[in-house]
Design a protein that fits this description.
five-stranded antiparallel beta sheet; 31 strands; Jelly Rolls; Glyco_hydro_32
Amino acid sequence: MHRDTPQFRPSLHFTPERNWMNDPNGLVLHKGTYHLFFQHNPQGRTWGNIGWGHATSTDLLTWHELPVAIPATDTEMAFSGSVVWDRDNTSGLGAGSEGPLVAFFTSAYPAGNPTRPGQQAQSIAYSLDDGATWARHAGNPVLERGSENFRDPKVFRHEQSGRWVMATVEAAGRQVLFHSSENLLDWRFESAFGPVGEEGVLWECPDLVELPVDGGGTRWVLVLSTNPGGFSGGSGMRYFVGSFDGHQFVADGDPRWLDYGPDFYAAVSFHGAGSTFIGWMSNWAYANQTPTFPWQSAMSVPRRLSLTPVGDGLVVRQEPVLPEVMPEGVTRAAIELSAGEEVVLVTGNGDAPSRCVIRRLEDGSLVVDRSEADPHGVHRAIVATPPIPLPDGPATGWLIEDHGLIELFLAEGTVAVTMQTFPHAGPVRVVTEPDAVAAAG
């Protein structure tokens, strides 16, 4: 028998009213409204029966949940994907003078499917009423390879070549595939990137976006999610900086971590606001076991991304989208950490409050430890981050805490750490303890 857990319902982070949620899908800014679609099981709090949930916002801060947009059917589940506004009606799916919104999702067919047993392929749904209702395209799927791990279509307009581009993954093969189209319906293969990363992991949810560089210019950034193989264990995210000519992505060098915490996955950009991202604030190592009810999982706060020079390369800088006044139950605190110092988030009253420790080690690296902030024992396998590299000197930045959800942005936003906790109920205090590491040792 589950009991409601209002003490864990965040004020700033999006959660569905009830039931399961994972990856953000179909992020699009359309006529002044942000649409957030998401992987959703409307029938229960664990993964299954997956279709697309839907919420909208005009400011990225307050969200209104709508009915399921693309439900699962008896013949397929609707896995992750993207939405574009086909403004010029290149697809011919529009009505009248205005082009449709077009959603690309992965059709995940069951093992018993007579023609595509256990396979995954890319399909279309479209909306003629600004996203309120959606119809599956009669010609689905529009792209298939006979593969069981071909998924997560991220479609964008490549203005230089005047074509649509789709990035997908062969997840088990650790490859990103690029296809192009003039009409969103007929796709031709352009190139593959990879395989990249460790063997035995899955690459998922690709996004390729052109980001501004501090000081001028732009570069292309390929964002990927990996499960497992994350920096802190379980699932996580990396990115490559490079170039893209409409046909092929070429990386400048090795990948970097987009977030060093355990709870940031499947982040993708908004079509129409390409530098704004949202990620799923959980980890596949324990996502089905977290103790919230009647909902499961939250999204991160939106983040605006750019590139800044660090050393001889470019690093993603992340700036959270926050209100001027924090809602009730949300803490936003400026922090500064030198070697040997720590900041402790203390939650609850009594003799044994919950504690999440943000500790700068003597070598200058950072560790975030939630071992005393999870009385439910959900995170037994991943209670702390490994040492996170930081630039020399004091590390300054911002800490956001929202009913146990923690997002940390340091070094001018070039280091992000995202972590969920499930602390005891009660007030939150941010305690600075200089030299606490040395004193304890």
